[in-house]
Amino acid sequence: xxxxNIIFKVENNVATLxxxxxxxxxxxxxxxxxxxxxxxxxxxxxxxxxxxxxxxxGEKSFVAGADISELATFNPLQAKKFAxxxxxxxxxxxxxxxxxxAAVNGFALGGGxxxxxxxxxxxxxxxxxxxxxxxxxxxxxxxxxxxRAPRQIGKNMAKEMIFTGKIISARDAFDMGMVNKITPPETxxxxxxxxxxxxxxxxxxxxxxxxxxxxxxxxxxxxxxxKIEIDAFSLCMASQDAREGTTAxxxxxxxxxxxxxxx
Length: 263
Ligand code: DAK
Fold this sequence. Notes:
The protein is α/β, with parallel strands linked by helices. The chain folds into two domains: 6-200, 2-enoyl-CoA Hydratase, Chain A, domain 1; 204-250, Lyase 2-enoyl-coa Hydratase, Chain  A, domain 2 (Orthogonal Bundle), CATH 1.10.12. The protein contains eleven helices and ten strands. It has a six-stranded mixed beta sheet with strand order 1-2-3-5-7-10, sandwiched between helices. Strands 4-6-8-9 form a four-stranded mixed beta sheet. The longest helix has 20 residues, at 76-95. The radius of gyration is 19 Å and the shape is globular.
């Protein structure tokens, strides 16, 4: 599959999706969002892919939000189509069974911050900047930002960012728990790939079960969340990986996870 606005590659069980419109700071136009959705479907159906990394082309930007030049031309029906496609893509991203790391290499504004927040965690380069400038356009975040930001950085911090449209540094984003790690720009991808490489070596079933339990549990109360964990734990116990992991420990060797269910 060839794309005009993204670069998609798979190597060593890790897929890398690069937003690739550097002249427009990788702003999200309709075509890019369609390609993002198609690539995410491919990731979902390819069991060889164990981790997805998202990043932006060029040194300046991850994604500078929706493409304002395109947005300005939409009639209401086109805007609805754009919104529906955007939500489908971002929901698909959040619901991918495998971990997603956003390697934010510059501006992550509006839709860019929303994509990063829908990922499982964020590594940011020292020059990364986050924000929701929609308010400056007379808009509000439209790809789930009003919902994901308060859940992840707290209601009041999210309100301040969304009401003011201010742009914050990687350090501020790290301090509020939005970013897991800050790295020099030159080593951002290396760091993300290193972490992805650690995850690739773990059991396929247990990584997926952990992601599902955390995500589904966060949307509910603690007691229901613990029930979700019991089911996910039981599923892991039915996998060859659990047998291999425990046996390898007892035999004092490294486990070799295959990701199959018990036969
Ligand atoms: N759209 C289109 N082009 C953009 C762009 C964007 N978002 N951001 C940057 N560019 C283009 C610039 O126009 C410029 O193009 P040329 O003039 O060279 O042709 C080029 O990228 C380089 O940008 P600058 O010259 O401005 O670079 P600076 O370093 O001076 O400034 C900046 C960088 C990121 C601070 C600045 O470019 C900027 O403020 N960009 C706009 C940020 C922004 O407001 N993004 C949109 C957020 S709103 C919806 C759902 C969701 C959304 C909308 C609708 N529905 C449900 C319907 C989402 C909305 C958003 O994301």
